[in-house]
UniProtKB/TrEMBL annotation:
Molecular-function GO term, any one: ATP binding
Full protein name: Phosphate ABC transporter ATP-binding protein (PhoT family)
SMART domains on file: AAA (SM00382)
Organism (species): Eilatimonas milleporae
A single Gene Ontology CC term: membrane
Length: 258
């Protein structure tokens, strides 16, 4: 008998270790990411948050000296298996970086880039539709619909970040990884991106690295606290922030270190 398993994780990490040469950056991490849920990754600078995030869509593959061991799965399939097409994987597990990094192309072409290389549109009309829908989901359509041919780099920082989110969404990802997406934004742009994350969480599994405890508390359902490469504690965000089980977590969230 087949049963539906609503709580099957979208992605799992088991016994994940990452070394850069002799630096042991991630030490035996187990973590699940679920669809319809935002997981915040928090912890002091250098604790391995970005490193861990990059393992999930194999962005570490191209980092010289970086060695990843353990098992990471997407829908139960090991993403490090040789048969995995990394370009395809990164379409399914998209990434948004700390510094908005639009391509030196038009707003339109930034969003159309992924759908073009993945052959997602049969016609220019299809492509127009994907671009418009993605910009709309990213909360940017109204601001750019009359200037799609202008360079993406000419937008404000907050608009560029939403453009990068639109670019990630355009290829129908299942997971979105965000590495401090608001750290370069003012409070208004941050609020817009947070509202967007809130909206997107119904469709994707989202993992977001943040140094803002307030942001983690506002937007995430699960929180994972990293310290010196170790995942010290993870669980429901409310529990982590109101009754952390580990002294290191308590010290960090109350601002005693980090
Ligand atoms: N490309 C690299 N080569 C060598 N060591 C690296 C590399 N990237 C990260 N590291 C090391 O791995 C450890 C974890 O770094 P990482 O960037 O993952 O931390 P982080 O938690 O994201 O920090 P921050 O909050 O400052 O962004 C650090 O000791 C760092 O020096
Ligand atoms: Mg980082």
């Amino acid at each position: 008998m087949s049963t539906s398993q609503p709580h099957t994780p979208k992605m799992t990490a088991r016994n994940v270790h990452v070394h850069y040469g002799t630096t042991h950056a991630i030490d035996d991490v187990d973590l699940d990411l679920h669809s319809d849920e935002v997981t915040a990754l928090i912890g002091p600078s250098g604790c391995g948050k970005s490193t861990f995030l990059r393992c999930l869509n194999r962005m570490n593959d191209s980092v010289a000296g970086c060695r990843v061991t353990g098992k990471i799965t997407l829908d139960g399939v090991d993403v490090y298996e040789p048969k995995i097409d990394v370009v395809q994987l990164r379409a399914r597990v998209g990434m948004v970086f700390q510094k908005p990094n639009p391509f030196p192309k038009s707003i339109y072409d930034n969003v159309a880039y992924g759908p073009r290389i993945h052959g997602l549109a049969d016609s220019r009309t299809d492509l127009d539709e994907i671009v418009a829908t993605s910009l709309d989901k990213a909360g940017l359509w109204d601001e750019v619909k009359d200037r799609l041919e202008q360079p993406g780099t000419a937008l404000s920082g907050g608009q560029q970040q939403r453009l990068c989110i639109a670019r990630a969404i355009a290829v129908n990802p299942e997971v979105i990884l965000m590495d401090e997406p608001c750290s370069a934004l003012d409070p208004i742009a941050t609020a817009r991106v947070e509202a967007l994350i809130e909206e997107l969480k119904g469709r994707y599994a989202i993992a977001i690295v943040t140094h803002s405890m307030q942001q983690a508390a506002r937007i995430s359902q699960k929180t994972a606290f990293f310290h010196l490469g170790v995942l010290v504690e993870h669980g429901d965000t409310t529990q982590i922030f109101t009754s952390p089980q580990d002294d290191r977590t308590r010290d960090y969230i109350t601002g005693r270190f980090g």
